[in-house]
Amino acid sequence: MVQKRLQTWIDSQYENPRGIVGTYIGEKMVRQHRVEVDWTIEQLQIQPNDRILDVGCGAGDALAQMLRGYNHVHVTGLDRSPTIVRSALRRNRTDVQAGRANVVEGNLGTLPFPDVQFDRVFSIHTLYFWDDVPAVLDEIERVLAPGGLFVITYCDGKGDGTWDGIASIVREQLIPAASALGFIDVQERRGPDSRDYHTVAVTGRKPV
Prior knowledge:
This protein has helices at about 1-15, 20-30, 35-45, 60-70, 80-90, 95, 135-145, 165-180; strands at about 50-55, 75-80, 100-105, 120-125, 145-160, 160, 185-190, 195-205. It is α/β, with parallel strands linked by helices.
């Protein structure tokens, strides 16, 4: 019973990192998820002067990668955890001060941004925690500018195993919701395995 409660608490830290342990887990995820981050950035097809939003930005590694790789972009990270927001701000302090980056605390279901503010919106390993998949995607559609692209990256299995629950969420909720919102070119893309986990992304574009 004690072991089960401990595991539940650890799992909750991955969903919403808190305190010293949360800070450690945020940095651990930076090390673990580099393959997915690099691949997701490639899928974004970033263009000069793009405004990019990372929904569930964690400790801000993807923001830092894009800022290093692209000179003329502005990146914004959003996370629900005050602990992890502080980590992301520390990691990107120079660019935040220079006005190239911003990190804010907020909820995926009610993004604290005006309509059509971003050219690219992406999220890595947050889909598992979306309480209302159509509602989150509706918010992503709202803040995307016409012609904008979204990329939702996740894992759907490990080794020889497939996570049927995640696969069902994607096929029965995420993809139908994207089509209902009018996104075009909606597709699943298979990425590189990371630590034997199967990387996948759903992508779609908002019509011009």
